Amino acid sequence: MPTEAELYAQRLEKRERLLQRADAYPARVRRTHTAAEAHAAFAEAGEAEGAVAVTVVGRVTAQRVMGKAAFLDVRDGTGHVQLHFRRDRLADTFEDLPLVDLGDFLEATGTMFRTRTGEVTVAVESWRVITKALRPPPEKWHGLTDVEARYRQRYLDLMANERSREIARTRIAVVAALRRFFVDRGFLEVETPVLQDQAGGAAARPFVTHHNALDRDFFLRISLELHLKRLLIGGMEKVFEIGRVFRNEGVSTRHNPEFTLLESYEAYADYEDVAAMVEEMVAYVALEVLGASHVAYGEEVIHLAAPFARTTYRRALQEQCGFDYRDYPTTQALRGLAQERGLEVAPGASWATVLDQLMSTFVEPKLVQPTFVFDYPTELSPLAKRKVDDEGAVERFELFVRGFEVANAYSELNDPVDQRARMQEQAQKRAEGDDEVELADEDFLLALEHGMPPAGGLGIGIDRLVQLMTGEHSLREVILFPAMRERAREDGATDG
Fold first, then answer.
1. How far is CA 308 from CA 145, 275, 278, 304, 368, in A?
2. Could you tell me if 85 and 66 are in contact, meaning their C-beta atoms sit under 8 angstroms apart?
3. CA 234 to CA 226: how far, in whole Å?
């Protein structure tokens, strides 16, 4: 069997021979029909042989040469079509077929017919190579099965695996449906800065970058929140944004350091209003994208139609973990409980961080069907409004499905004095060693002092919503280019 280097050399030699005949990389093609359109036109013509003339283009995915005739399959973005080449029909160009390899792109003109085996086919009258591929596609087009290779070389994965193409199309459909949903409800889509003075709006480690012209450091945003709230202050009552955010955290099947977030803010709404909107939104997206209000997940069926189950943060821990967090008011006490439950707690972790670790370990994995968890401890939610009847909790919910968070929402805190005090508390926790806390943002606090109306805010992880709609287990399946660790070489070193 030829080596990879030998195969590459053979394709280079074929490229040179093609270039002696014509341009193997022309700037323009003359497609009249996509593969799907060609099939549809043939069906509309009653499958009359020779009645439909087409020019199709696509990548070669199969070759069968049989002396005086050959069959090639080509695929474009809509599907595949078979091409039939005959020596007596193509004169001298039939002799060029040995220069064509799997992975090359062809343009072919001819009329449609159906073969004896029932395959809709183009009887080729003229053809040309429009891109000569120097490397072969994944072996035999049976699918690229090495998971790491699929993520590192997504273009090969998309070539070989229909499932990967389906997921990519589903993601696009989910984003489009979300956009329609919010626009139809009167929200304005806006854009806010990626480079920020302070990476606020969430408790996460940010990435830092340097601006040469200004000679200063900026943070890549970890949230969309604080700038969208500035727009509420400015008088825009319903706003949303779909954008990339960046968090300097671990890489796993459930986390990626950059991900797509949708955030919306609506003046004069509270978290109950937002919860009702989320129930409607999830069902709407499911129907738009899947045509159904349920999705299979292993042996389970996830039901996405309203109403969703509801519980509170305190009750969920009591029922699933057997303790009341209010019985453990100090970091030391809660840390001791966590260690009794077998959790490893970072030395500088705050009370809120330890509690969140307990919740994510013992409760969240059990929330398979859509479940709202309401009323979070104040320490976990520095940007949410306190509950009137419970000073230890805030008006916040998270929506969990299949054991992971899909949406997060608040009745937004709009008291600038309370907000400043909470941000100062967060700053003290950072000074004590917890680097995953909310950063103080003086410019936002200044804006808040000008008055922000009562509002309901929402954050939706697009990647996790796509996971839900596709039934995928790994976040990397729904992100076209996930972050990857450096690849280990045989000499023990690493490369990108």
1. 37, 9, 10, 8, 11
2. no
3. 13
> Are 77 and 34 contacting, i.e. CB atoms less than 8 angstroms apart?
yes
The token pair that represents 274 in the structure block: 């937002």
Q: Convert 311-333 into a string of H (helix), E (strand) and C (coil).
A: EEHHHHHHHHHCCCHHHCCCHHH
Q: What is the pLDDT of residues 378-399, one digit of tens each?
A: 988 888 899 999 989 999 999 9
- What single-letter amino acid sits at 116? R
The residue whose two tokens read 């497609």 is: 31
Q: For residue 113, give the 3-state DSSP assignment.
A: strand
Measured CA to CA, the distance from residue 228 to residue 412 in angstroms comes to 12
| pLDDT score of 350 more than 60 | yes
Dist. CA 226–CA 413, nearest whole Å: 11
Residue 474, number of CB atoms within 10 A of its CB: 14
Residues 6 or more apart whose CB falls under 8 angstroms from that of 356 comprise 380
What is the sign, positive or negative, of the torsion defined by CA atoms of 89, 90, 92, 96? negative
pLDDT at 440 over 90: no
How far apart are the C-alpha atoms of 314 and 319, rounded to whole Å? 9
pLDDT at 141: 44
pTM for this structure? 0.89
State the alpha helices, DSSP H only, in 322-455: 331-340, 351-362, 416-431, 442-448
182 sits in the region (left: phi over 0; alpha: psi -120 to 50; else beta) called: alpha
204 in Cβ contact with 225 (< 8 Å): no
Q: Which tokens go with 283? A: 């069902």
Write the pLDDT tens digit of every residue in 462-479.
999 999 999 998 999 999
What does each C-alpha distance from 174 to 29, 183, 306, 405, 464 come to in angstroms?
32, 14, 18, 17, 11
Confidence of residue 254 (pLDDT cuts 50, 70, 90): confident
Q: What does the alpha-carbon distance between residue 227 and residue 221 come to, in Å, rounded to a whole number? A: 10
CA distance 114 to 129: 24
Q: State whether the Cα torsion 158-298-469-294 is positive or negative.
A: positive
Rounded (5°) CA angle 327-328-334: 150
Distance CA 416, CA 420 (A): 6
- pLDDT at residue 438, as a whole number: 62
Which residue in this structure is represented by tokens 């309401």?
A: 374
Look at residue 199 in the predicted model and tell me its pLDDT: 83
What's the pLDDT score for residue 382? Answer: 81
DSSP-derived secondary structure for 189-237: E----SEESS--SSSSPPPEEEETTTTEEEEEPS-SHHHHHHHHHHT--
Structure tokens of 42? Answer: 């043939």
Q: Are 322 and 358 in contact (CB under 8 A)?
A: no
- Do you know the residue count of the chain? 496
